[in-house]
Design a protein that fits this description.
The protein is an alpha+beta fold. The protein is built from two helices and seven strands, in the order αβββββββα. It has a seven-stranded antiparallel sheet, with helices on both faces.
Length: 190
């Protein structure tokens, strides 16, 4: 009889722990969903600010017309920085757009920053099926740490696996810092 009572108690404890775990997981997911929605709204407002020319911008382009240089296939590279000036010498990068094209491989990246200068959103679209297991990736950040990694899958099954999201996040954060430094250097040279 005592063994049966202990078994029922343990069983109900496990059920209670499971319910608690599921509830906590759902709350965490809802919290992240709300944070992602807020970042998406910041992105939408950034695009509106750009279209209304509310921010300053710097553009750098190599091979604007995409000419086939030396008959080796064309190469095109561009950077667009959209920023506000906090003081005359300190820019606050809001959005950076980077595009790299070589022949038929195209990479497009967007880096969105918050008012403190921290990266909060990264979006990459590319068609390099030989090197990447995804076509599009959206990465959301909170306080410099990964919040959500959202990637679309390729349809080609012959893909080799690329870097893990954790490794890619380090690279993305480093690229974001380099873009901020590049903009500051451009403004110093003016």
């Amino acid at each position: 009889m005592m063994g049966l009572l202990i078994w029922k108690y343990q069983r109900s404890s496990w059920i209670l722990l499971f319910i608690l775990f599921v509830s906590t997981t759902q709350l965490w997911a809802q919290s992240n969903a709300a944070k992602v929605q807020a970042i998406d709204e910041v992105y939408r407002q950034a695009r509106i600010s750009i279209s209304q020319k509310k921010w300053l911008s710097n553009h750098f382009t190599i091979n604007l017309k995409r000419h086939n240089l030396n008959h080796s296939g064309y190469y095109h590279y561009s950077e667009k920085f959209y920023y506000a000036l906090v003081t005359p010498s300190s820019p606050l990068l809001q959005l950076a757009l980077v595009r790299r094209e070589k022949e038929n491989v195209d990479y497009q990246q967007e880096f969105l920053f918050n008012p403190e200068g921290k990266l909060i959103y990264f979006h990459e679209k590319q068609n390099d099926v030989k090197n990447h297991p995804y076509r599009e990736v959206k990465v959301y950040f909170e306080r410099g740490k990964l919040l959500v990694w959202n990637q679309s899958n390729q349809t080609d099954l012959r893909l080799k696996v690329g870097l893990s999201p954790k490794e890619r996040v380090k690279i993305i954060l480093k690229e974001a810092r380099l873009l901020q430094k590049k903009l500051a250097r451009q403004l110093e040279e003016m």
